[in-house]
Structures are given as structure tokens and as C-alpha cells.
Amino acid sequence: VQLVESGGGLVQSGGSLRLSCAASGFSFSSWGMSWYRQAPGKERELVAFISSSGGNTNYAHSVNGRFTISRDNARNRVYLQMNSLKPEDTAVYYCKTQLGWSDYWGQGTQVTVSS
């Protein structure tokens, strides 16, 4: 199983970024996918989840209405569109899947939002 995130960077407050996670080594279309983030000195937190078909999504309260999770099962990719970014969104963002009892994580991509 391999998860590789991309798309992070430095953006001004109010700006947008689109994160991408390329998945391989498992039957991507059969499993839900999540985005997590971890800010310095804080615990890792769930940002968004999408079901295997893409028909169900859930968001953390702090990002609801600003972030959108989506997936392309033909390309084995999951995305996180982040709009109206705030300095408190600054964190390392991780892609994650849970296959049975095992969690698999990507290496993370840094998102920095300047005020």
C-alpha cells in the first residue's frame, strides 16, 4: 500500500489549494479514504472522509463549508479542495486509509497559510 500526497504550499489567508493523494497497492475503489492534519504541537485530527463510492462524505466542523473531499476511482486518487483558507489551517496534511484492522498513511504535505 502506498499513499503519496501532493499539492501543499504557501498561500495567503483567503486563498485556495487543492491537495491530491495518489493511491496504489490495494483495491482503491473498495475503501473509504480520509484526510487528516497535524499542526505543530497539536494532535493529528480528522479533516474529511469519503466513502468508497464517493456517495458519503463527512467533515470536521472547523472546515465544513470551506473544504471539499472528492475521489476519482478510475485514477486511484482522492482530493481535498480547500477554499477560504485561514492561518489556523496551517498543518501537515495526510492521506489515510484503513484496510481491515490496519491504517495506512502517506508522508504528508505541508500547508502554510499566511495572515
Structure characterization notes:
The structure is a single chain. The protein has 115 residues and is an all-beta fold. It has no helices and 11 strands. The strands form 2 sheets. Strands 2, 4, 5, 6, 9, 10 and 11 form a 7-stranded mixed sheet that branches. It has a 4-stranded antiparallel sheet with strand order 1-3-8-7, with no helix packed on it. A hairpin with a 6-residue loop joins β4 and β5. It is globular. The N and C termini lie far apart (37 Å). The mean pLDDT is 97.
Give the radius of gyration.
13 Å
> Which regions are unreliable across 5 or more consecutive residues at pLDDT < 50?
none
Sheet/helix structural class: mainly beta
Give the helix level as a range of percent: under 10%
Number of strands: 11
Query: What's the main sheet like?
Result: 7 strands, mixed
Mean pLDDT: 97
